[in-house]
């Protein structure tokens, strides 16, 4: 299988009529099985969990997760630890409701949050390069990133990072507002310093989106001012990614039809999403050339498949700086500290989190709603996929 350099990886590729109809049917056969994004998530998770190795006899993967439900938030001590990809994704797969990609190009930092007294896992963070144009981000920056915009991609990447994975173990998230703790830690001076030193950045913009849109009215990022603020809803005009084995097989099929060349540069960020979008584009172009009726049928089905996705709530943090849009637009060169800049530290986040977590924990205990059973996918497929990350 050969690969070439450059941006026009599949320029001019038109499938013959038989192949175009085959590809359209394959796409249709996959997505017709899902009526809702939750169905899609569960199918992908089920396939991945079934492939995971089993723990040694008499042991459980759950033993490594926080489970001391009698511990008060005031007694907890935390540490963010760098994690290898294998270690991170093995444990993440057990608790995350969303199927996540283990291999991503570009910048990335993986943290696992440990409660130090018990030396157990409380949550996961993965930061990486922002991958697409987002309307509320453009509105906040008063500009558009990329070749057709007024903000260069290199400038934007030097200052911006995305929170792709911010996942508390459960029910640590539910009982102790664990999602808010993890999200807050993403926006600290310590994380900024790590990014800046590793990638020669000058980080001043953190962004993330809620996992679900209309499925949940609120997310774990709501109620986190001043550290994280809501900036609007994203657009939802693309289908969810095909899951692992199906996508790999389909990608290899397109590569074969493209004379052994990948249809998207394998080094770009967000390549799985971009590859699937390119597949759809090739199918549309090919059907339009060969069969107008099949083309219209496919366009309509693709439009329906995008309904599986939802508009996401988009959030940002400025790490305590007040002139981030001006910096990213290139109008200013020196970051200016906001009056509350000194709160954007790990200790500042913990000081903000502890009283909120304490109130949450004490109220749950009083109401008899404190959860005391670890929720991991290896033990049941019936856990609440819309559970609260808090």
Characterization of the model:
The chain is of the alpha+beta class and 390 residues long. The protein folds into 2 domains: 17-36 and 239-308, no CATH class; 52-236 and 310-367, 3-Layer(aba) Sandwich (Aminopeptidase). It contains 13 helices and 7 strands. The chain has a 7-stranded mixed beta sheet with strand order 1-2-3-4-5-7-6. A hairpin with a 4-residue loop joins strand 2 and strand 3 (120-128). Helix 10 runs antiparallel to helix 11 (292-305). The protein is globular. It starts with 16 loop residues before the first helix and ends in a 23-residue tail after the last helix.
Overall residue-averaged pLDDT value: 86
Annotated CATH homologous superfamily of the largest domain: Gcn5-related N-acetyltransferase (GNAT)
How does the overall form come out from the CA principal axes? Answer: globular
CATH topology name of the largest domain = Aminopeptidase
CATH architecture of the largest domain: 3-Layer(aba) Sandwich
Query: What oligomeric state is this?
Result: single chain
Spell out the helices and strands N to C: HHEHEEHHEHHHEEHHHEHH
Number of strands: 7
* Secondary-structure-derived class: alpha+beta
Count of discrete domains: 2
Task: Provide the low-confidence segments as ranges.
Answer: 1-7, 385-389
Largest sheet: spatial strand order: 1-2-3-4-5-7-6
Distance between the termini: 46 Å
The main sheet comes to: 7 strands, mixed
Radius of gyration from the CA trace? 22 Å
The helix content, as a percent range, equals 25-40%
The CATH class of the largest domain is Alpha Beta
């Amino acid at each position: 299988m050969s690969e070439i350099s450059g941006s026009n990886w599949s320029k001019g590729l038109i499938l013959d009529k038989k192949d175009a109809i085959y590809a359209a049917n394959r796409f249709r056969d996959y997505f017709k099985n899902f009526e809702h994004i939750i169905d899609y998530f569960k199918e992908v998770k089920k396939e991945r969990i079934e492939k995971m190795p089993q723990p040694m006899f008499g042991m459980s993967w759950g033993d490594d997760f926080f489970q001391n439900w009698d511990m008060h938030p005031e007694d907890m001590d935390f540490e963010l630890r760098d994690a290898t990809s294998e270690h991170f994704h093995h444990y993440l797969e057990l608790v995350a409701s969303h199927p996540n990609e283990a291999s991503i190009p570009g910048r990335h930092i993986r943290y696992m949050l440990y409660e130090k007294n018990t030396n157990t896992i409380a949550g996961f963070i993965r930061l990486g390069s922002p991958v697409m144009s987002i309307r509320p981000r453009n509105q906040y920056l008063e500009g558009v990133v990329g070749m057709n915009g007024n903000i260069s991609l290199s400038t934007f990447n030097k200052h911006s990072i995305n929170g792709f994975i911010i996942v508390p173990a459960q029910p640590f998230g539910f009982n102790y507002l664990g999602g808010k703790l993890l999200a807050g830690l993403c926006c600290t001076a310590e994380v900024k310093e790590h990014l800046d030193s590793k990638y020669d950045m000058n980080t001043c913009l953190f962004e993330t989106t809620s996992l679900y849109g209309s499925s949940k009215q609120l997310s774990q990022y709501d109620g986190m001012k001043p550290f994280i603020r809501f900036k609007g809803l994203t657009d939802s005009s693309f289908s969810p990614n095909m899951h692992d084995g199906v996508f790999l097989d389909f990608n290899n099929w397109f590569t074969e039809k493209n004379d052994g060349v990948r249809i998207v540069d394998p080094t770009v960020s967000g390549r799985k999403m971009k590859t699937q979008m390119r597949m759809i584009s090739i199918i549309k172009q090919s059907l339009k050339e060969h069969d107008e009726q099949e083309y219209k049928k496919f366009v309509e089905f693709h439009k329906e498949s995008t309904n599986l996705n939802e508009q996401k709530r988009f959030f940002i943090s400025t790490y305590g700086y007040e002139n981030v849009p001006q910096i990213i637009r290139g109008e200013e060169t020196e970051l200016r500290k906001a009056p509350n800049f000194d709160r954007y530290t790990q200790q500042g986040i913990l000081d903000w989190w502890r009283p909120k977590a304490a109130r949450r924990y004490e109220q749950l205990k009083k109401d008899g709603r404190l959860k005391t059973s670890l929720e991991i996918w290896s033990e049941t497929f019936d856990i609440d996929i819309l559970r609260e990350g808090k």
